[in-house]
Structures are given as C-alpha cells and as structure tokens.
Design goal:
This protein is α+β, with helices and mostly antiparallel strands and 239 residues long. The chain has helices at residues 39-44, 86-100, 126-136, 139-145, 216-226, and strands at 30-31, 69-72, 108-110, 116-118, 147-148, 159-162, 170-179, 186-191, 200-202, 209-210, 213-214, 232-236. It has one domain (20-236).
Amino acid sequence: MKKTLSLVLLTIFTITASTVSSLPVPAGYTRISSPAGSYGAWLSLLPLKNDKRILSFDGTTITNPFYHVFAVVALPLLFSSDLEQCADFSMRLWAEYHKDNATFDKMYLFTYSGSRRYFSESGKTYTSFLKWAMSNSNSYSVKTGCVPVPDADVRPGDMFVQNEHGGIGHVSVIMDMCEMTGKDRLYLVGYSFMPAQEFHIEYARETFGTGGWFTLDGYRRYLAEYLDLGKPVMRRFGE
C-alpha cells in the first residue's frame, strides 16, 4: 500500500453539514436526488458528526497521512473488536438501510464465496448476523456476490471494489452524486479502513475532482495512488 507522507495529517475541526445531503455541491453543479425509499436516498440522509475525528474500534483517534476528510458519518462502531473494516462497513450500511425500513425479508449479506445469506433465514439477532458476516466475508465476497455496474449507470450505494485474488482488498461506497451539463458527473465517496474505524467521506483534491467531489476516473486514480490494492470494479447490492 502506498502512502504519501508529505501530506498533512488529519485535521480536526467543526463542520456545519448535518447530513450527507447537506454537504456543499460544487459551484454550477446540481445534486441528483435518488428515488424516495431507495438505498441511495437513505444514504443521503445519514447524519454526520460535528467534527472530522475518526474513531477506531478501541476508541483511539485515527490519523492517516493520505486522508483528506470531508465528513465522518455518525454511526458509531457496533463492536469493540477489529471487525468493521471497509467491506464490513459497506455491508453494515446495506443492513442498516433494511433495518430502518423494516424490510428484513430483503436483507442479506454474504458467505466468503459471495453466496447470499438472508437474515430472515439465519435464526440470528440483527447484531449477531452482522458479526457473523463481518467475520466470514470480505471485499472478495462483495465483489463476487454483488452485481456488476457499468459506469453509465453508477448511482449512490454502488461500490468501488478492489480485490483481484481473494486476499486483502478494499471497498469504497458512493454516497451522493451531482451533475452539470457538459461536465462529468461528480460523486461523494467514503470508506472505513484498517484497523476497524468509523466511516468517513473522503475529500477529492482538485487532481481527482472538483470541490471535494470525485469524478469516477478521478477516484480510480486516487485509489491507484493511495490504496493500491488492485484494479477497482463497480458493484451494487442487488434486490
């Protein structure tokens, strides 16, 4: 994994946005709303912490030299062990969406091979089901079990998944998108990481996007520069 140590460490300061959908859109761009009740719409309403401090599973503050933190999602970690890393948090978001909408019959996570395991058939509590999935699957499982997505159809909730050989990989989640006529669409993208830590939205430097939002190509270049864990593919949780 490559790290550019010349970058400043995580800066902690107060932000005014209260939800993902209230993070500012770059000048000239218009936010694209997701359909009511959709996973993307739910992601846009996630609350944000009032500072940029990312907490690890053991309660310590994360300082990573390649982070440029736009905001931190206000979802405290469920477990006091090193479970909720990148792929795990992507699965947790999907599970929390179904929990909030009481659609438990549609809620599934994965075995390591990418096979679906439905919560309603598991006989487990919500928390124990998540702990089982996080303990037994990873980015390879998300890549194998989720649906491929073409760039022309990318939307909030879709994921950049890096895992070419079944070992260590990475998962990033698209949280929001905006557009301007004649320009590339832009995306807010976030992730958890190692060690297990709160989910943050990464700020795109100007070489990767505009006003903190990434282009698709820009985020791929960001991954290649800072999280070089394999070629990313686009994936989506299917219905």
